[in-house]
Structures are given as structure tokens and as C-alpha cells.
Amino acid sequence: MVAAKKGTTEDSSAAVAAAPVTVPADPGGLAVRSGEDPWTAEEVTGARTALTAEADRLRAEISAAEEALSGLMRDSGDGAGDDEADTGSKNVTREHEMALASNAREMLYQTERALGRLEAGTYGLCETCGNPIGKARMQVFPRATLCVDCKQRQERRF
Q1: Taking the CB of residue 58, how many other CB atoms lie within 10 A of it?
Q2: Angle CA(70)–CA(71)–CA(76) in degrees, nearest 5?
Q3: Which of 101, 109, 112, 119 is the most exposed place for a label (fewest CB within 10 A)?
Q4: What domains appear along the chain, each with residue ranges and CATH number?
Q5: Distance between start and end Cα atoms, the chain
Q6: Are 79 and 87 in contact (CB under 8 A)?
Q7: Would the pTM count as exceeding 0.90?
Q8: What is the 3-state secondary structure (H, E, C) of the chain?
Q9: Each residue of 16-64: pLDDT tens digit?
Q10: How far apart are the C-alpha atoms of 152 and 90, rounded to whole Å?
């Protein structure tokens, strides 16, 4: 997140207030960018269903990866007679499984945060500038937390 510099609160507030936001007639609706159609109840339900299914899939993937890791850890002590190549291969496999599990945990965290934002009515709002991310972007990447401009700025910094 970008911290506001001292004395620029009015400037940043004015920028957020001037953002092109269209709020659907439904007070519980989600914000969209100017020119986009409002989220329909079916689209919101579809997003929620897809995110919930993704969370369930990721939990199963994490469980399977943890089982595989448990087996690999058990077998790592049973290396009698292994040469250096066998030991190295087992280490690479174990590290690969650990990386897969870590990636799945991060995606699950992002998915659960998206579900929380959907329930809170902040789904589709940029966490940095507060502007709408864009309905089309959210439909393609439902875990998005930044608008395209903020995401590009973030990527340039790293």
C-alpha cells in the first residue's frame, strides 16, 4: 500500500472522490468502472460459486501435497545405499512439493480474501487507490486486489 505524504491528504481524497465510480441501483451492489454494466445477482452468485469451488480445490491440493511431503520426509531417512544422484533427486522432489504447497496456500489465502471482500461489498475496489478495478478484470482474475494502473506501478517498483 502507498502511504500518503504528510500534507497531501486533501489531494489523495480529491483523487479518490473524482474517481469514475458507478454504483448499481442495488445498495448492496458492487462498484464498477464508468461505462460498465452493473453486476447482476447472477454474476455475483457466479463469482462467489467460482471462488468457493477454487478454495475447495486448493484445500484438496494442499492436503495432497502435505501427504506427498509426509511420505517424502519419511523416505528421506531411508537413504541407505543411495548415491549422490538419488539423494539429490529426492531433495529436488521434496523442494518441488514444498513449493507447490506454498503456492497453493498463498492462492487459498487470496481466494478467501476475495470471498471476504465479496461479502463485505468491497469486491472489485482497488486496495491502493479505492477506484473500481473493473468488472471485466474481476471476471477474468477474481482474486485481483489492484486496478491495472496500481498493479503496473507495483510491478515497476519490483
Answers
A1: 20
A2: 100
A3: 119
A4: 9-157 (1.20.120.910)
A5: 14
A6: yes
A7: no
A8: CCCCCCCCHHHHHHHHHCCCEECCCCCCCCCEECCCCCCCHHHHHHHHHHHHHHHHHHHHHHHHHHHHHHHHHHHHCCCCCCCHHHHHHHHHHHHHHHHHHHHHHHHHHHHHHHHHHHHHCCCCECCCCCCECCHHHHHHCCCCCCCHHHHHHHHHHC
A9: 333 444 333 343 478 888 899 999 999 999 999 999 999 999 999 999 9
A10: 39
Q: What is the CA radius of gyration of the chain?
A: 22
| Grid coordinates belonging to 145 | 486486489
The three grid cell numbers given for residue 149, joined into one nine-digit string: 494502473
Q: How confident is the model at residue 75 (pLDDT cuts 50, 70, 90)?
A: low
Q: Which residue has the cell 448492496?
A: 28
The cell 519490483 sits on which residue?
A: 158
Average pLDDT over residues 78-100: 78
- Counting residues of the chain whose pLDDT is more than 70, the rounded percentage is 77
Q: What is the C-alpha to C-alpha distance for residues 125 and 32, in angstroms, rounded to an integer?
A: 8
